[in-house]
Amino acid sequence: MENKETKQEPATAAEQKTVPLIEDEIERSKVGIMRALCDRQDPETKEVDDLMIRRFLRARDLDIEKASTMFLNYLTWKRSMLPKGHIPEAEIANDLSHNKMCMQGHDKMSRPIAVAIGNRHNPSKGNPDEFKRFVVYTLEKICARMPRGQEKFVAIGDLQGWGYSNCDIRGYLAALSTLQDCYPERLGKLYIVHAPYIFMTAWKVIYPFIDANTKKKIVFVENKKLTPTLLEDIDESQLPDIYGGKLPLVPIQET
């Protein structure tokens, strides 16, 4: 069945009162406790919804103390990284010009699809601080594209043509830290495709820094099984054309 994008209307106030956003009783209780604890330390807690607090709880296996520390650190980070509420494209013009990140379509679970093209990233021609802002810009754009009721996204990391000139261990670790610490439980699945053998040298350095929950979401796909594997989760009408689908790649700044 074709997975067409549809505009979702927000729930009315009455609907929000009668239908709990969090159905699980234990999670709902822990969200309430965590919200009260965090609100005492940072009033900006009031500005986030229960689903965000639940994501931080899930990232710490429902441990309220650990999740609260993680969440409060996030609020501090957000004030520093996103003082305007967004990353202006003028601040990341160099990274955007390489069209290294694309986004289009949704998978069969309505999760937006992002495609990172590894051989378009050249750290010698970039700036580490700009790249960090570019990562945040990307994650904010992806999250904004999620339909109501969906909290996760799917990513395809394409390493075709990747070489040592593209290797950026510091950048990869910074991106990983941002994803795990500031956007927990947002990644639904990461397909790594066309990975050359030399990439495994970098992967061995990165792997120990990936938390257990994130590791479960990463899949290396063999070239000969690429299209069939992606089609298990993504309808042909929503799959990028370079992988046998129907949609052309669209740079994320043009979405």
Overview of the molecule:
Mean pLDDT is 92; it is low at 1-20. The chain has helices spanning 13-18, 25-41, 50-59, 64-81, 93-97, 128-144, 169-182, 199-206, 212-215, 226-233, and strands spanning 101-106, 112-117, 153-158, 187-193, 218-221. Strand 2 (112-117), helix 6 and strand 3 (153-158) form a beta-alpha-beta unit. With 255 residues, it is of the alpha/beta class. The protein starts with 12 loop residues before the first helix and ends in a 22-residue tail after the last helix. Helix 6 (128-144) packs parallel to helix 7 (169-182). It has a five-stranded mixed β-sheet. It contains ten helices and five strands. InterPro entries: CRAL-TRIO_dom, CRAL/TRIO_N_dom. This is CRAL-TRIO lipid binding domain.
Name some characteristics of this structure.
CRAL-TRIO_dom; disordered N terminus; 10 helices; CRAL-TRIO lipid binding domain; 5 strands; globular; 5-stranded mixed beta sheet; CRAL/TRIO_N_dom
Quick structural overview:
InterPro entries: CRAL-TRIO_dom, CRAL/TRIO_N_dom. Residues 89-251 form the CRAL-TRIO domain. The chain is 42% helix and 11% strand.
Describe the SSE topology.
Blueprint: H1 13-18, H2 25-41, H3 50-59, H4 64-81, H5 93-97, E1 101-106, E2 112-117, H6 128-144, E3 153-158, H7 169-182, E4 187-193, H8 199-206, H9 212-215, E5 218-221, H10 226-233
Parallel strand pairs: 2-3, 3-4, 4-5
Antiparallel strand pairs: 1-2
Helix pairs in contact: 2-3, 2-4, 3-4, 6-7
